[in-house]
Amino acid sequence: MNPYYDKLINFDGARGLDRLVRKWAVLSSNLKTLPVNGPVLLPDLFVVSQSDTMLSRMIDTLSSYLITQKNLMDFSGDVPYFEFMMNYCPPGTGFGELKRLIDGISDCAGYRNEFRGIVHIKLDYWLGHQEEHHFIDLMDYLSENTHKWLIILSVSTKNEGKADAMESILSMFLRIERITLHRASTPTYVSEIEELLADYGFALDDSARELLSESIDILRGNRYFDSAGAVDLFGSDIIYELYARENMSAMTLTAADLQTFSKDSPYIQRTLQKVRKRIGFA
What we know:
By secondary structure, the chain is of the alpha/beta class. It has helices at residues 5-9, 17-31, 52-69, 96-109, 133-145, 160-173, 186-198, 206-220, 227-243, 266-281, and strands spanning 14-15, 44-49, 81-85, 117-122, 149-155, 176-181, 203-204, 252-253. Helix 4 links the parallel strand 3 and strand 4.
């Protein structure tokens, strides 16, 4: 079994991903036994996401799955996937973003003739502008190259109407499967911190897990909390604090070992203040 299959099937917060990957697994198995007279191309993806970091993590796992599966698509180039933020270009101006995209994909090919892999394009700034001439030019370019790439087009929005309108245009040019990516649950983030700590030889007891759960619940309560990214920083701060202590604690951490990161700690309050200041500045 592909080692990345279970990760994708159980990817917390991703609606539609498990069904898609199960279908791909059946397709891969059939390609080994059934006669194939031409390529069987995967559909491209439209992802509505609430977390950029979770989205990048999903794409990274998806690329690993497809590479390991071997027969679902080809990979060629210096990297397996390319991520690009498509800035908005108003009508009547040049479409320099398309050239920047083409140049970026070309760079990913390295010394090979062309890039083959995953191309992820964020379209946040094009919501509501998807019927403009520049956007149609983008879609024409993507439709001409969909046979070489798995194209993932994403937006970050809670407006279902805007997302549906975008999907309607995309579906005129590409075969689209839609995935909705929510924030993962608190237990998932605690598990991620636990895995990070395990790389450094640390384990958590139940009291430590409860303390971290309460702290993450506080951080997740803020709607501007970029869940996975903030959790990665949280885990890095824990490791830094543990290694900077004069007397190292036991390798199995308790709540007492992690009081610096409890829900009422100055650390959590400072983190919340950083978010408020950032929003105020914006």
